[in-house]
Amino acid sequence: MDERARADEPVTAELRLVTDEDVLTAEERDELGALLRERRRGDLAESQRMAESLGVLLASRSESTADDEHDPEGPTLSSEWSRLQALRSDAAHDIVAVDAALERLRMGTYGVCARCGQPIGVDRLRARPTAELCIRCAVAVES
Fold it and tell me: What are the residue boundaries of the structural domains of the chain, listed by start?
């Protein structure tokens, strides 16, 4: 049997009891909560900018009689539409992830790995505040 953990199985080797020292402090929770709320505001603003740009592009598309598909001077309207839609979609996905992290923060489960139940390091949460997995589980899932 392969000794590596399968991505769909919880990590059970080397589980240890989570102590008060492992839990985020109130200051860390406040700091990370503020970081999440700021990120959400930025995502909403970015999504709004993309929606406005899509509206302008749509107006350009409907008003234009030029054949932009063969214009060597710049990107086509179609490619610009695709690019803006992708950026808007990325922002929407991030808003969902931030909202889920804020809910975990509210419920008291923020900073606890969803896979193994061990603490997620505060440095990881500062770098990826929406992280649901500790580094060990994230590596196991990605491999």
Answer: 1-24+111-143, 40-107
